């Protein structure tokens, strides 16, 4: 992990793990392990190792990103600081608040990324242009 983005905007979330000789079990509960109600779950798989995903920020949506299998790099940017996180442990997710730019790359072969989201899909919630994202941050009340 590298430099930390403003506290609360991005942080690691650890989920419980129940050990059993037949295999481990991890679970997640909204408003318990996750600081929001889960309104959407999606996952990425069969991602080419040289692909770049993300490349956007959200106006309102919060999310937690997990590497269920394999690994990948998350780069997050709050307009001041860029930080990198390697996700590879299915018990540990990365919470990303609203108004944080995110990019994903360096997917390992067979990586599976699962995302828990606070809102349903809404294209109007996205900033897909980095300069528009930076301009929106300047317009935010302090």
Describe what you observe in this structure.
The chain is globular, with a radius of gyration of 15 Å. The two termini are 27 Å apart. It contains one helix and twelve strands; from the N terminus they run E-E-E-E-E-E-E-E-E-E-E-E-H. It is mainly β and 142 residues long. It has a single domain, classed as Sandwich (Jelly Rolls).
Q: Give the number of domains.
A: 1
Please describe the biggest sheet, giving its number of strands, its sense, and whether it closes into a barrel.
5 strands, antiparallel
Beta-strand percentage range: 35-45%
The CATH superfamily title? Jelly Rolls
* SSE pattern, N- to C-terminal: EEEEEEEEEEEEH
Distance between the termini: 27 Å
* CATH class identity: Mainly Beta
CATH topology: Jelly Rolls
Lateral strand order in the biggest sheet? 1-9-6-11-4
Low-confidence stretches: 1-7
Give the count of helical stretches. 1
SS elements, strand count? 12
- Residue share in helix: under 10%
> Strand pairing plus helix content: what structural class?
mainly beta
**From the coordinates shown, what is the CATH architecture?**
Sandwich
What coarse outline follows from CA principal-axis ratios?
globular
> What's the mean pLDDT score?
91
Radius of gyration: 15 Å
Concise structural overview:
By secondary structure, the chain is mainly beta. Helices cover 6% and strands 40% of the residues.
Which characteristics define this entry?
about 140 residues, mainly beta, Jelly Rolls, 5-stranded antiparallel sheet, 12 strands, about 5% helix, about 40% strand, globular, disordered N terminus, RmlC-like_jellyroll, RmlC_Cupin_sf, QdtA_cupin_dom
